[in-house]
User: Fold Response regulator transcription factor from Solirubrobacter ginsenosidimutans.
Amino acid sequence: MFAAGGLRAADAEQSGPETTTIVVADDHALIRQGLRLLIDGEKGLQVVAEAESVPDAERLTYAHQPTVLVLDLNMPGGSSLDAIPRLLTQAPTTAIVVLTMQDDPAFARQALRAGALGYVLKERAGEEMLGAIRLAAAGDIYLNPVLAARLGAGPSPVVR
Assistant:
C-alpha cells in the first residue's frame, strides 16, 4: 500500500525522460487518490508523491523536483499562496497548478502573481486537470474558463 508522502519503487522505475512527474498535495485522501487514478491512467504522466499539508508539499517538492506540483489552496500547516514563491525558489523547474474550491477571481489572480501556472476548480478537476498539467509542464498558463472570462482573459482557458 502507498503511504501519503512516499515514493514506491515501481514509481521510480517507470519514470522516463519523457514522463511528466507530479506531486499531488491535498489534505483530503479521497482527492489525492482520485487525482492519482486520473493522472496515472494517462500516458506520459506519473504521480511520484502525495502530500497532505503545506510543509509536506514543500518537503516532497524539494526532494522529488517534479515537473508539476498540484497544490490545494487550503491545507493545514500554512498558506499555500505564501508557499508558492518558496517552492519556486527551491524547485525552479517545477510548475505549480493550484487546485481549489475558491472560485473568487481574486484568489486566482493572487496564485498567478505568486507564480502558479494553473488554477483549477475542484468541481471541474476531472475535466480540466490533465490539460492544466500538460500546459503547465510546457510553461503555459491554464485558467478555469469561467474565471478567465471573469478576469478579462478572454474565453480561452490558455493564457500565454
